[in-house]
Amino acid sequence: MTILILLQVCKALRQTYVSSSELQYIVELGGQHLIPISNTDSDNHIPVSERLQYLRDRAHAWFRVDIHSAKTISIPKPSYVDSFIADGHLYWWDEEDDTATIKPILPKPLQQTTERSWSPGALCTITNSAIIRVLMDPAQNLIAIVCVDDETLFVNLRALEDDSFHPQAAGPKLFLSELPGYDDEVDSERVELKVMGRHIALRRPVSYHWTWQLQIWDWQHSTTSDSVLSEDYPYEIDFCFLGNDRLLIVTDNLKLYSIEDMSKAPELLASFVLSVQPLTACLLPADGIACSSKPRMQAQPTMYTSDPKHRLLCITAHTHTSSTVYIISTRIFFDLAETAVAMPIPWKCWGPSNTRIFQCPLEHKVHVSGNRVLQAFPVSTSDLGPNEYVLHMMDFSPLAVTNRRGLGQVVTKPSTLNVADLECMHDSCEEHLTTFLPYVKVVLDRKFAISDLENIWIDKDRIYLLSDKLEVIDV
User: Fold this and answer.
1) What was the pLDDT predicted at 282?
2) How far apart, in whole angstroms, are the C-alpha atoms of residue 198 and residue 217?
3) pLDDT at residue 398 is higher than 80
4) What's 72's DSSP letter?
5) Residue whose C-alpha is closest to residue 329's, from 345, 344, 357, 309
6) pLDDT surpassing 70 at residue 187
7) pLDDT top residue among 281 and 211
8) pTM > 0.70
């Protein structure tokens, strides 16, 4: 009798779910690790049933990408470029020529665009100063420029659109704290600057010393900061923001800090043991761009965004002979026990179930957006290394198996990586690492030389391939 009642209840619940577009929409958002954006015009004008179908169709479209449908854009070939793509625009800074450019990429109907360039000398107008780094955050209409003037570093803040004073900035310059005991021995070539919402962080290694310093500002409220980290470490580090109140640093371990209280140094929340010694580590944030304070008009109404607690993080650990790519779910950094800070969390307790590891050649390309990964894998090699690559699109969201509708390959079996030849961080390391974060992959049927993949990006509806030209594939 009890079983019959349970069956009837289950049947009733299923019927309620099937007949309710709102319930299905909520489940679909959660299954794709998305959260709705409220207070938009689309909330009142687009029926829930249409939003649900759009969400499912967009997810399925990634499994039938036509890599041969690329549109090509000619771009200048600068000598040295720091470039990225966001919001349908290409942003680049040419360090050698002291120029910068914003260029819209095949804009869609109704999309708001910006196009401008900075000629030599226009980025920093302070006499006898040199530019170290340029950061552009289109979501906040912000350009931040690290300059050195008489061996003093500072960060100049301006509005991206017209170089005027940024209306949300506490002042035009951010000032760095002194690094006691090292005077001005900062290695300016390895300075790094990143932004997320109201936070800006600058990393500066110290020349001839195995020391680095990281300083974080609330740039909208103060031009100075007491939120400073410093540590001795013999290899290069990287860092990224996780949401608006957490910071992750890659050293010998993954160290998670709270930056909620900016009146003091960041507070260590947890330390996650890494399995392989990274001689250098490159960390890709989940989406790379901060929460928008000035949203641009899109061709399609934006009804959702990726959940910051359920995104992907990519860490590439380089050794002398190869690269190890960690794809990590950010959920592990938000679901913490109160005692997590007491001692480092062993790899076996957090890594296998929250990670997929891929071993790659030194020359490889990867980009992450939300729960999707675009990565180049070698398909033919010679004594000199890989000759050709193909692109894999991988979807790590829970509903990827459903939304693929028979396309792609479901990967649920554990993958094992031989790390015997890699440098291990800890005496307890094993010769093999097994990880099993599930995903669905599609192998795109086109081969590339590595020279044809100078950089790659994905966003919510496009793939971008950069070489001596820019190829754009609509999804």
Assistant:
1) 63
2) 8
3) yes
4) E
5) 309
6) no
7) 211
8) yes
User: How, if at all, do strands 238-242 and 227-232 pair?
Assistant: unpaired
Could you give the maximum distance between any two Cα atoms of the chain, in Å? 86
In this structure, what token pair is assigned to residue 449? 């030389």
Q: Where do we find the tokens 């929460």?
A: 291
Checking if the pLDDT of 248 tops 50, the result is yes
Q: Half-sphere exposure of 184 toward its Cβ, with a 13 Å CA cutoff?
A: 7
Q: Quickly list DSSP for 127-161.
A: TTEEEEEEEEEGGGTEEEEEEEETTEEEEEEEETT
β-strands 372-382, 385-395: how paired? antiparallel
Residue with tokens 């190869």: 322
Element (H, E) at 236: none
Q: Which of 117-131, 209-223, 298-312 has the lowest mean pLDDT?
A: 298-312
Give the three-state DSSP class for 33: coil
Q: How far apart are CA 339 and CA 184, in angstroms?
A: 39
Which of 151, 125, 126, 155 minimizes the C-alpha distance to 143?
155
Dihedral through CA 66, CA 72, CA 75, CA 77, nearest 10? 70
Sheet holding 89-94, edge to edge: 81-86, 89-94, 99-104, 116-118
Residues 195-207: pLDDT tens digits? 988 999 998 877 6
Query: Residue 354: what pLDDT?
Result: 94
